[in-house]
Amino acid sequence: MKINIKKMNKIYQELRDLENLIINLERKKIDDNDQIELDKFYRKRLKLFNLYKNLNKEFPLKNKEFSILKKLEKTLNTNIVSVKNQKKESIAYYCNNEEGIIEFTIKNIELNQIPFEIFELKYIRKLSLINSCISKIPLSISKLDHLKLLNLNGNMIKNVPKSLCSLRNLKKIVLSNNKIKSIPECLFSLKNITQLYLDNNLINLIPNAISNLNSLSILKLKNNKIKKLPESLLTLKNIELIDIRNNPVADSIDPTMLRLDQLIVKN
Question: What is the pTM of this model?
Answer without folding.
Answer: 0.77
